[in-house]
Amino acid sequence: MIPANTNTTPSSLPEPDETAREHSEALVAQIRSAITDAGGAISFAEFMQRALYTPGYGYYSGGLQKFGGEGDFTTAPEVSPLFSQSLAAQCAQVLEQLGHADILEAGAGSGIMAATILAELEQLGMLPDRYYILELSGELRQRQRDTIESHCPQLLERIEWLDALPISGFRGVVLGNELIDAMPVQRFVIEDGEVYEQVVSDEAGNLQLTSRPANAELTGSVRALETAMGVPFADGYESEINAAGDAWLHSVAEMLEVGVVLLVDYGFPRHEFYHPQRSTGTLMCHYRHRGHPDPMILVGLQDITAHVDFTALAEAAVEDGLSVAGFTTQAHFLLAMGIEQRVASLDMEQQVKAAQQIKQLVLPSEMGELFKVIALTRGIDVPLQGFAFQDQRGRL
Hints:
Rossmann fold; eight-stranded mixed sheet
């Protein structure tokens, strides 16, 4: 998503309408019930899971407008078709090597990326046998179907929606754009040198973040991070661990027979993610194109995200027998895929519009530096074009 205005304070956010407020209150009531059943508190990861994915009520499951100018944020595929066309060109390189193969997109949002990739691959004569979309939200599935039918109805028959990853034997490309950042994270804080877990409790009818001593598993994970960083975290330091991302990648590795996992997301290598100066973590909420750090308000109405620790993803991939084939910024990836050359055939008016879109995608002050691209492979022995300009695996 395009970086939001993060100078927003919760009190200055737009007021939701009555219907949205009732929607949020219904979800909060379910979360409060879960807190009671758990004995007074639930982990932040469980709260985030419920806030985002509770069927019918969670942010991604409740039918609210999320993407584009009328939603809460704008992702790269909505900024310009040039982004998805560039991804399609990278997919084409892999599909050409594999012959008969498929594409699987996890979390396809509005469906515009799938539609653009398929249309571009059709132009290149490199269509996959099947284009799978892993999507649990029925509302988003319908929106994706409508988008694809509007842009390339002749290709709709190639698409199949999935409720879960295939068990095994997948050949092709797995795509995830702004996928890992939306997975529930554990939150920790250091108090008097000890590791505490941030949890959500119900205080007089209001959801509040509190803390409790971390269990052995979370404590071990945090101590391992301190060892990797070479310095203990200071008192008051708080941050996130995305165990769900590692687990998802493990499942992908189990099903991948041969191919590439291509992930685009915002985040950092570990030494930057857990830098001592990033002492409040990376958690961010997005509502009506405004960013703020309070996940306890607008529950079910706002997105909740955390940046990605790309070192953790790389380590998890290697443990599961995958190779880290490339890591770079979104800007270098798109430039290596020839995004600038794609506008040469456009008329002057279109070129001016495309130039503005490219700026949003590649400038450091926009999406170019914060967003990274990582490629994880099995059985692919050719250098991937998207990392030809600058491969930053050494930063991991």
